[in-house]
Amino acid sequence: MTSDTTVRRQTLFWLAATALVLFAGIGLRFPWPADEPRFAQIAREMVESGQWLFPTRGGEYYPDKPPVFMWLSALFFQLVGNLKLSFLLPSVLASIGTLWLVHDLGRRLWNPQTALFAVLVLAFTPQFLLQGKAAQIDALVTFWITLGCYGLLRHFLTGPHWRWYFVSWVAMGLGIMTKGVGFLPLLMLLPLALWARNPGAGAEPVWRWRLLAGLGVMLVTLACWLVPMLVQVELRGGETLLAYRNDLLFRQTGERFVNAWHHVKPWHYFFTQAIPVVWFPLPIIMLVLIKPLVALLRQDAKLRVLLTWVGLVLLFFSISSGKREVYIFPALPMLSLVVAVLWVNGRELPLAKKLDGVFRWLMPGIAALLTGLGMLMWLAPGRLPGKLQDYADIVNAVAVPLTGLGVTLIVVLLWLRRSDLFVRLAAASLVGWLFVALLVWPRVDPYRTPQDMMQAVEQHLPPGAELGLIAFKEQFLLFSQRPLTHFSYLAPLLQQEQNAWIWMREAPNRHLLVPTDGELGCFDGERAVSLGEAHRREWVLLGPDAVRPTCGTPARLQRFHYQPVTNGVLP
Predict the structure, then answer these.
(1) How far is residue 273's CA from residue 35's CA, in Å, rounded to a whole number?
(2) What are the two backbone dihedrals, phi and then psi, of residue 34, each rounded to the nearest 5 degrees?
């Protein structure tokens, strides 16, 4: 039997290894579409303008999300002074925090071995490291939600612990200020009410009227942002700020949940399409060990609380017609504890050993396939399927790293062939992400950014020229070496084009950067100068000679100016 000291040392190793992999690759790539350039640009504008209360994108208010993630991104940018180094830090640090919270819960609610396996589950479940190494909001909101659950569990299951109880409400407030679903720990109060009992005689009860003060703590936390924002909207007035407030507080929350306008999926999407991929192999492990899981749930109220909460979160997101894989990410940390308890108690069972045997052959087989695919991409790219050949530059860039990854995985799996299944899975996952972050990212980066195209823009523009954009993405702002004018990112393409036509006629030496996939009626496309492709779209430059004599005109001209303080992306 492994001693607790040995288990703690192993846990420390895996915590450090996972943290190292999360940090690996920082500074080796720029923000990539779709979401990363948006948040990086907003953070950059906060620092450059000094306006932190109302996030802007190209000078236009950004109402899609509350500001906490952008604040942290801007703070790290201001501290580090390098956008390429800073933009991933909020997600990395939030993921490390989530990892520690899960480890500590496993240790306190069960034992050190459960804590170890919970860490391993997060290390090998694809969604955890995928979000931890992406500059999106979801890793941070998952940290706040996990912290909220942690505080409630510390109070009701290991308490009373009123300090952690109120910390959970602060975390929920910060979670809502990060992404509207930060309140999800509240759903845990239902299973806690069913299965968390007050201690016996002589001990302080965990269920008291004092619990209601938590709601006030959350509201005070929210008020730290909401009150100044609402006051400024009232003082400054104007339709733009009112539209920002209404969009942020109503359209992007309740309306988006009840009547989603994109990412529309069937009710079963999470269970039939998302979870089998982003949480692999957790569904397989739970299905194979379903009988031991049911038996554990009968015996262990703590396990019932966690798994019921995970089910409520999945149900909550399944109700809305709009669904994305990242929506269910906050449920993964608590699920990792459930799977860890299940594996600790069931890994010696015959079915678990059979599952271990399947993966003992499956994982080296996948590594061999990666090796073969990498060698094919390297030595005979012409034999690849047609779709892969369409990305010949990227294929050539990743061929050698992919081959090296496959060989390395085979060696690692042979070395760990007698280790536990979860150890082999975690080792393979961390090795894979190391190769991706250190070898693949730098090679692919030039193809995921418009840096070369924006340099081509500078070569084609005459001295003193002004540049406008329509139907653009945030990454164009990041790589711009001059002031830019755009015509509302949120406006329909026709309105952007009409306003751009007015802007072009107002002064000489103005040029417009546009994609070719939209039909433009106000400009002569035959006079366009092609600049090549970026993000699978061809972009062209339109000069004054491309402006047609007439064009339908909207009732009101809308334009936004963005002037970077520095030249291009900050070094």
Answers:
(1) 22
(2) -95, -35
Per residue in 44-61, pLDDT (tens digit) is: 999 999 999 999 998 889
The answer to pTM > 0.90 is yes
The answer to whether 90 touches 73, Cβ cutoff 8 Å, is yes
Cα distance between residue 193 and residue 17, in whole Å: 38
- Please report the pLDDT score of residue 566 as a whole number: 56
Q: In what order do the strands lie in the sheet with 529-534?
A: 529-534, 537-542, 510-515, 466-469, 484-486, 560-562
Residue the block writes with tokens 């209360």? 53
Q: What are phi and psi of 256, to 5 degrees?
A: -65, -35
Helical segments of 479-523, H only? 493-506
Strand partners for 561: 485
* Average of per-residue pLDDT across 492-499: 89
User: Confidence class of residue 519 from pLDDT cuts 50, 70 and 90?
Assistant: confident
pLDDT for 568: 44
Which neighbouring-strand residues pair with 541? 513, 529
Beta strand 466-469 pairing with 510-515: parallel
What span, in angstroms and rounded, lies between the C-alpha atoms of 434 and 139? 19
Domains of the chain, by residue range, sit at 4-254+263-346, 350-448, 453-562
Residue 83 class from Cβ within 10 Å (0-12 exposed, 13-18 middle, 19+ buried)? Answer: buried
Q: 3-state secondary structure string, 13-52?
A: HHHHHHHHHHHCCCCCCCCCCCCHHHHHHHHHHHHHHCCC
Q: Exposure string (b/e) for 9-41, b if CB count within 10 Å is 16 or more? A: ebbeebbebbbebbbbbbebbbbbeebbbbbbb
Q: How far, in Å, are 374, 377, 385, 405, 536 from residue 381 at the CA level?
A: 10, 5, 9, 18, 21
